[in-house]
């Protein structure tokens, strides 16, 4: 009789992961509060135009397009824990500068754009290092559990931050709320700094020219047929959803007539779907199939976003808050399910030494479209108006699912592993590229 393998121990019992998890929770809360309060501050106190809001949205992600590729090669040469700590401290310092200027009466859109771009640079290094750190910290057998727990944290922050921010906006100004956000970044840095796991850096003698290392990471991504399709879907979706996101605050406050606190509560209630998605992602993947769940969730969140522009014509029948919450909850549920599935796939597929460059290449391709989306939203909002821009973005979001719908993913239940050798070349991960 073959002895049964001992049950796998949860990452809750992993002390270093607990610190990473807690630090991530603090940082996510700060990031979500910032994402809520900065646009509201720009619209309500700095009287930003549609074009300025598009520029602000672009600045918040510009670094992924500008330095996204070399950042991966740099991260692979750095100690990832130290990179995370420095990035958190940098974000706290920059945001603290914005707070000081606002409280002194010297806030401006120019300063806000510069600060958003600087925070974007720090976020590039944080996000690339964060995704590359998880597999080495917890082991490949635990990456799905680790990613699900971190996605759950993000979803909790998506629920808690808008509700907290919306309530606070009733009694204090946006700059005062940002003081607390500075503290969350500092707390994140403190917790991450206590992680004790040792990291082994590649020997300096093994390093090659930066251009070669960058090209290797990009080549790994582009030579994976399934990963190529996932990246295309995510990039197109991010382009259109960011175009819409640049105008969401203007749409809610000026077109639908909501107040700041009401917008915060809508965002909080919508994010409950993401929280459910984080807890149910593994179960949904087992039910639908870990490969098939990617195109299914892409179609679902694309259709759910149609509720955003529909909130205006339905306003005489259904309060716009109800429409926005319903669509937003379904949207965030399937976005989280999609992210858990595709991030876990690429972490399993990629050799450890290449993780930083692989993640940076993916982020360059999928987040690099976001500043372009912000500018597109600002331009379209100025040219054709806010509501028509939201319709363009919603249709584009639905179309973003085409690369994964028209792929072998719809026929598969299990995503390929590096050692698989299927007959269908579109199913093969081609792991020899980076060996």
From TrEMBL:
It is found in: Cell membrane. Keywords: Cell membrane, Membrane, Transmembrane, Transmembrane helix, Transport. Pfam families: MFS_3. Residues 416-435 are annotated as: Disordered. It is a multi-pass membrane protein. One of its GO terms (cellular component) is plasma membrane. The chain crosses the membrane at residues 21-42, 54-75, 175-195, 230-255, 261-281, 293-312, 324-341, 362-384, 390-410. The keyword Hydrolase does not apply. This is MFS transporter. It comes from Cellulomonas carbonis T26.
């Amino acid at each position: 009789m073959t002895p049964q393998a001992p049950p796998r121990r949860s990452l809750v019992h992993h002390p270093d992961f607990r610190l990473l998890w807690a630090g991530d929770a603090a940082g996510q809360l700060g990031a979500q509060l910032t994402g809520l309060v900065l646009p509201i501050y720009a619209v309500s106190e700095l009287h930003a135009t549609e074009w300025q809001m598009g520029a602000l949205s672009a600045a918040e992600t510009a670094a992924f397009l500008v330095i996204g590729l070399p950042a991966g090669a740099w991260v692979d040469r750095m100690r990832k824990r130290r990179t995370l700590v420095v990035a958190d401290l940098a974000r706290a310092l920059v945001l603290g500068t914005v707070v000081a200027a606002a409280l002194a009466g010297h806030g401006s859109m120019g300063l806000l754009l510069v600060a958003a771009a600087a925070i974007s640079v720090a976020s590039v290094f944080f996000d690339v290092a964060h995704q590359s750190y998880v597999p080495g910290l917890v082991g490949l057998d635990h990456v799905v559990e680790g990613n699900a727990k971190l996605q759950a944290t993000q979803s909790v922050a998506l629920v808690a931050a808008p509700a907290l921010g919306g309530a606070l906006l009733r009694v204090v100004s946006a700059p005062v709320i940002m003081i607390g956000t500075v503290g969350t970044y500092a707390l994140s840095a403190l917790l991450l700094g206590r992680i004790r796991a040792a990291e082994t850096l590649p020997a300096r003698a093994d390093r090659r020219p930066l251009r070669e290392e960058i090209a290797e990471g990009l080549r790994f991504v582009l030579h994976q047929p399934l990963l190529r399709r996932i990246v295309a879907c995510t990039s197109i979706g991010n382009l259109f959803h960011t175009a819409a996101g640049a105008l969401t605050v203007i749409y809610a406050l000026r077109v639908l007539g909501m107040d700041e606190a009401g917008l915060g509560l809508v965002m909080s209630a919508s994010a409950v779907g993401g929280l459910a998605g984080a807890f149910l992602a593994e179960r949904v993947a087992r039910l639908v199939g870990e490969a098939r769940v990617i195109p299914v969730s892409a179609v679902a969140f694309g259709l759910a976003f149609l509720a955003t522009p529909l909130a205006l014509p339905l306003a005489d029948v259904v309060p716009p808050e109800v429409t926005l919450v319903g669509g937003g909850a379904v949207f965030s549920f399937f976005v989280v399910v999609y992210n858990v599935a595709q991030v876990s796939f690429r972490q399993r597929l990629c050799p450890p030494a290449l993780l930083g460059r692989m993640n940076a290449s993916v982020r360059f391709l999928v987040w690099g479209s976001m500043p372009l989306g912000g500018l597109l939203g600002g331009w379209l909002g100025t040219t054709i108006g806010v509501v028509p821009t939201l319709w363009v973005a919603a249709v584009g979001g639905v179309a973003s699912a085409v690369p994964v719908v028209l792929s072998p993913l719809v026929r598969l239940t299990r995503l390929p592993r590096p050692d698989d050798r299927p007959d269908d070349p579109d199913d093969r991960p081609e792991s020899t590229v980076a060996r």
